[in-house]
Design brief:
alpha/beta, Rossmann fold, Dihydrodipicolinate Reductase, domain 2, 2 domains, 14 helices, 18 strands, globular, binds NADPH dihydro-nicotinamide-adenine-dinucleotide phosphate
Length: 403
């Protein structure tokens, strides 16, 4: 129970505040702040219409640590939920330390001029948060987020150890556009054009982006081509579950998406190196992002389902040797739109952000320090997934994956 300041009025921020308002016994006072206040006001209007709850709004540039700390104090926030972009993570963590507030985000920090997806910048805040008696929870979206909680739940209830884990992210939805990303275009394209990397026998194995793929038959969604990629939770999972021998991340993409990205990459439009244009320095990827559809406008157009989950193999708790489990959620784009006015990619990120925030406010996860999701107890989070729109299933497979 407590006061929450959400920063970032994009697709994910919108879902999170709608779901917080639907749980006003936990989120007793909600403020939404972003660079452009009109976006917060539009969302606040929808929240009021759908839930009857009034949320407050504010304008903030989260890169300005002093101004953000002042806003946190003015709101009296117990918890700051950072749903802006990864570039703002450290500035918002600094503002939380200055103002004495706790912190939660859904994506790890990245400097604008490097696409590395590494945790070390945020893990370096461990002592500062501990000494201040404050909690920072990293990566409370779906992936990272729920996929790490799924792994922890399997390790708590089904497996004594995890030998290998594959995270499978399938978006079987279609928005009818020739090319559009389903979350922030700049971050999405940085991710998919980065080299693929997976953890195997104590080392990172790197391969060029989008080279390894496999046709997987997803529950409900059916067969889709998924591509091996790097994703940030691989680093935290192999760190916190050191017994893991192999950890991989896969995401589905249609042929049209791959063709567009390949062309854009070949002609230099996905580069984050500055170039001169008309006497001004611009970043090609930022220019590209500005002409692509805004993902938060795609809700009404998107049909189909997502299926995201983990396949993990390890020693069974019941002493019955090695077992393999598949744990996943299916989410329907149109149902999300009907409930909160957003498509499923924003929904599957915004709902876990709300649930992670609730874990802190319910005192389940409130402990000084910087934590990744797999370090925290999974049980109440898993119950809340079932009760707040992201039900999950777990089934035993015949044996380890064969891809
Ligand atoms: P959007 O681009 O839709 O929204 C981001 C919002 O952040 C915008 O409204 C923007 O403000 C605001 N913002 C940007 N810079 C600043 C700043 N300096 N100060 C204040 N506000 C700022 O992104 P999404 O909603 O798609 O994604 C939000 C976050 O969720 C991202 O970090 C993304 O990486 C993460 N994510 C995580 C996933 C997971 O499963 N873990 C999956 C998908 C996304 P404005 O519009 O007001 O200018």
């Amino acid at each position: 129970m407590g006061k929450t300041l959400v920063i970032g009025a994009g697709g994910v921020g919108s879902v999170a505040v709608h779901k917080m308002a639907m749980n006003s016994d936990i989120f007793t006072d909600i403020t939404l702040a972003s660079r452009r206040k009109f976006k917060c006001d539009d969302i606040a209007k929808s929240v009021k219409e759908r839930t009857g709850v009034e949320i407050k709004t504010a304008e903030i540039d989260a890169m300005d640590v002093e101004a953000t700390a002042a806003l946190i104090k003015q709101v009296g926030a117990d918890l700051v939920v950072n749903l802006a972009l990864p570039y703002q993570d450290l500035a918002i963590m600094d503002a939380c330390l200055k103002a004495g507030a706790n912190y939660l985000d859904t994506a790890n920090y990245e400097p604008e001029d490097e696409a590395k997806f590494e945790y070390h910048w945020q893990w370096a805040y461990q002592d500062k948060f501990k000494e201040a008696g404050l909690t920072a929870i990293l990566g409370s979206g779906f992936d990272p987020g729920v996929t790490s909680v799924f792994a922890t739940w399997l390790r708590k209830h089904k497996l004594d150890s995890i030998r290998q884990i594959d995270i499978l992210d399938c978006n079987g939805g279609d928005n009818g556009k020739a090319f559009a990303t389903n979350f922030n275009p700049e971050i999405n394209i940085r991710e998919v054009t980065a080299p693929a990397r997976h953890w195997e026998n104590g080392v990172w194995v790197e391969s060029p982006a989008m080279t390894h793929n496999y046709k997987f038959d997803f529950p409900v969604v059916g067969e889709k081509n998924m591509y091996l990629m790097y994703h940030e939770e691989l680093e935290s999972l192999k760190t916190h579950f050191p017994e893991i021998q192999r950890a991989r991340f896969w995401m589905t993409f249609g042929d049209a998406y791959i063709n567009h990205v390949t062309v854009l990459q070949n002609i230099g439009m996905t580069s984050i190196e500055p170039v001169m244009h008309d006497g001004k320095e611009i970043i090609p990827l930022q220019f590209l992002a500005s002409v692509l559809p805004d993902p938060s406008d795609l809700g009404e157009l998107t049909k189909g389902k997502t299926c995201i989950g983990d396949i993990a193999t390890g020693n069974a708790k019941d002493g019955a040797g090695e077992k393999t489990y598949y744990i996943y959620n299916i989410c329907d784009h149109e149902e999300c739109y009907a409930e909160v006015g957003s498509q499923a990619v924003a929904y599957t990120t915004g709902v876990p952000a709300m649930i992670g925030a609730a874990q802190f406010l319910k005192d389940n996860w409130a402990q000084p320090g910087v934590w990744n999701m797999e370090q925290l107890d999974p049980d109440d989070f898993m119950d809340m997934l079932n009760n707040h729109g992201l039900p999950w299933e777990v089934k035993e497979l015949d044996g380890p994956v064969q891809f």
